[in-house]
Amino acid sequence: MTPPLKCFYLRKIKTDVIDIYGHFVFMYLRSSSRELRDTPP
User: Fold this and answer.
1) Which domain range does residue 29 map to?
2) The 3-state secondary structure of the chain, one letter per residue
3) Banded model confidence at residue 1, pLDDT cuts 50, 70, 90
4) Burial status of residue 39 (CB atoms within 10 A of its CB: 0-12, 13-18, 19 or more)
5) Total structural domains in the chain?
6) Confidence of residue 41 (pLDDT cuts 50, 70, 90)
7) What's the confidence (pLDDT) of residue 14?
8) How far apart are CA 9 and CA 6, in angstroms?
9) What is the Cα–Cα distance from 35 to 23, expressed in whole angstroms?
10) Distance CA 18, CA 11 (A)
């Protein structure tokens, strides 16, 4: 495996993990904010 290809795969995996992590954080924040908004004060 050539170094550039290895760097490319590492970068792709890192961006994929960041995308998945960001998606889960976004969903968690959205659901938690919705629960806070739905509960009466």
Assistant:
1) 1-36
2) CCHHHHHHHHHHHHHHHHHHHHHHHHHHHHHHHHHHHHCCC
3) low
4) exposed
5) 1
6) low
7) 94
8) 5
9) 18
10) 10
CA–CA distances in Å: residue 13 to residues 9, 25, 26, 29, 35: 6, 18, 20, 24, 33
Phi, psi of 22 (to 5 degrees): -65, -40
In the chain, the amino acid numbered 6 is K
Domain annotation covers residue 41: no
Amino acid residing at 3:
P
Amino acid letter, 23: H
Q: Is the pTM of this model over 0.70?
A: no
The string of pLDDT tens digits covering residues 5-36 is: 888 999 999 999 999 999 999 999 988 877 76
